[in-house]
Write the structure tokens for this entry.
Amino acid sequence: MIHTIINDAAQAYRGIIPADRYHEPYMPEQELQREIQDGVEFWGYEEEGELIGVMGIQDKGDVTLIRHAYVRTTSRSKGIGTRLLRHLTERADKTVLIGTWAAADWAIRFYHRNGFELVSEEEKSILLKQYWQISERQVETSVVLTSGRSAV
């Protein structure tokens, strides 16, 4: 179900993020399994017994990462993402970092509404290379938001 929700919700990226970064499925099952093996702990939100939102949290030692925040397309704008984000950030006792696509303005607005701030371009590059395993192209086309405490 996590895989299904991620790939349903990621349809919002089609035509928004760079074409060379978008593919179908957005997250293959093997990639999801690697994320779980790498320590991403997924939490879900259920409504009437159906999983409709997922969000991951990953401990990286001196920071906590929020990873893969997705809500089913049919269930967006109902506060589900906010509930998941609050639940996970309350569990973190250190700086929380979130990486997302620079072109995903709706995601950036969501994180701003929930108290996160964009880091500088220089800090972004340092953080993405230090805490994420992503391509240089993804570093170029992404942003990082922080819970307010400097991570660098």
Summary: The mean pLDDT is 94. The longest helix spans residues 80-91.
